[in-house]
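Quick entry between incubations.
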Amino acid sequence: MTHPNLISVELLELQSSLAGKHRQDQVFTVPEGYFAGFASTMLLKVRSIENNEELAGLSPLLSGLSRLQPFTVPPGYLEELDPMAGLRDEELSPLLSGLKKKQPFRVPEGYFQQAGLPAETNELDSVSPLLGSLARINPYVVPSGYFESLDPLVVIGKKPAKVISLGSFNWKRSVAAAAVIAAVSFSAFFFYNRNGDQPTATAVAVNSDTVPGSLESTGNAQLYAINTADAAEISKLVKNVPDQEIQEFLNETDNGESDIDDALLN
Amino acid sequence: MKRFLLILGLLFATTLHLSAQEDDDTDDNESIRDKMTEYIQKKLDLNDQEAKKFRPLFVQYYKDWRSTIRENRGDKLVLKQKVAELQVKYRDRFKGVIGEQKSNQVFNHQRDFINQLREEVRDRRQKNGRRKN
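Done. Structure below.
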């Protein structure tokens, strides 16, 4: 619409019957800026209508009320308000209001300047004249930087302790030690647990008077005749018991058993 | 080196101590005692329950029997008396566990076992003599 000439040219090109006709001017005009705020104005109106209708549907009474705040606060009222402003001291605390606001203790003028060293000296002189006569100067002097250069261990005459690092573990030495220990342990184990299958030279001779053979000759063989199966069983039982141990046992118990046997036999 | 010697010394000391303990334990010829107990239990045909009760009682008897022999070795008559008293005492105890009949047989089997031990020693000596020759 803003380019009527262009439209006319286009219509001529199209050989339209409308090309020769002139357009008439607009009868109605729109105020300046009318459409700029149109959309927002319309939306506000729609919303207001919708809200009012909704509220009227829910509560006709509330929708009928005016939306103006009936109470108003004067400007600056809350900022100027102090809750304690209207109260007097007596109302807040009668005890505190009764106290005098004056310092009860006072120091005489120039007290601290006068009460100094001379007064103390006089007191010390009266208590101990000897101490009072002593000069208050330290007679001993430490050379400058003495304590900084002092090594306590050197002073007491001790050498610093040797530091052994835990990280320097010598594997070779440890393995060698373990091997030797294992060898000695096994040797000791086998030495003390050697089997008695081999006869020992320390076997003690059996008392011939107590062996069953001699007793058999007494005519009481039936009492000592051990079943062959039992004999084999006992032999099997003591197969691994060393000769020495059996011999020691027999030597120790020989008297007891043989005497009991005698008692049984006679 | 010092550390190594220290460890070695401790090891020897421990070994000697253990061996000394073993010697103490074998003073009563534990292995023979156990074999004797096993033999007697088998001969008496004890069941598991009886064997469980009998074993500690017999071990106690064995210890007392050994000490009685040691203490009365010098006087044979007293030794006979003491051993007999001990066996009578323990026979009564055995009776409560394995019954009267079996309790009387305990000492017979003990005697058989000891006699067979003598035979065993003699046989071994003979065998060793043959090997040497």
